[in-house]
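Researcher: We're teaching a course module on how sequence relates to structure. For the next exercise, students receive a sequence and then see the predicted structure as tokens, so they can try to spot secondary structure elements on their own. Here is the exercise chain.
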Amino acid sequence: MMLPISINKLSQQLGLTSRTLRHWESEGLFKSSRDYESGWRIYDEEAILAIRIITYLRKLNIPLKDIKLILDTKDLKIVQRIIKNQLTSIAKSTNELIEHKSILNDFLNSLMNFNQHNTGNSLEELSHIFHNILEDSKGEKQEDIKMIDNETNSVNADNNNVRFITLPPMRVAYNIAVGISPEDEAIAPVVKWVEESKLMGITRLLGGNVKPFPSESSPEYGYGMCAAIPESVEIPAHLKEMRLPGGLYAVMPSSDDIYGSWQLLMKQLEENNEYKPDSSRLCFEEHIRNDNADGQGSQFILNLLEPVKKR
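Model: And here is the predicted structure for the students to work with:
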């Protein structure tokens, strides 16, 4: 029988980040409980077995919705069907890669033929070469245009989620942890103190990556969690005090894919004509308590805050 294990130890054993574990849990794949003394998530034997199965299947690119079906039903016939579907998908992808390889070879041969009679030393000549090749590439040009249009529409739709706000200067109590998955270790002491001080719902909870940052030689990184508090509140000895300058921030809700959400926000700022990132101030993930009545999802909903300034 396996003993319950904390999220940071489980992350180290399986080589998973605590964010990944929280994402899987928010998808309803397993459940954790809380250690009341430390505030950390802990996992019992059933959850650990589920996480190991998820890890195996994700290495084979089995979608999470299919993994959830496997865990919910525990039906070997369903497992067989899902694996057969995955094999079919791989075969289809292989055929597409072969087709793309053929098109690329045709494209390269056409370029080499053009190169014998064209110097390609001007943008006009290059444009003419590519235009003729694309026209002859079996209708691929229209598909490319369609893909670009879809990507543009997606970006424009996501751009509606980005807002710009001004944060006031704040006095904060904070805690920093360093490890392979340090988020929960950094967050737990701050949240526990905020709850005990009856400040939850009054304060802003802001987290973010800090030094050291991960590298090829070391996967460990730092994460800091802070709570904005009034001047009259005394900060306990196990937390530290800091002053944040506030200022202008771009704000976007995060999906469960936090890294992907940050990439999307930064892409929006690259294309914004009025604002650009301001590296002189810290970026944050604002943690907003998730009080969903059915108890589903992560403990906190995240808003991403990137400091910006006028271009």
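Model: If you want an answer key for the exercise: The mean pLDDT is 80. Residues 76-138 form one domain.
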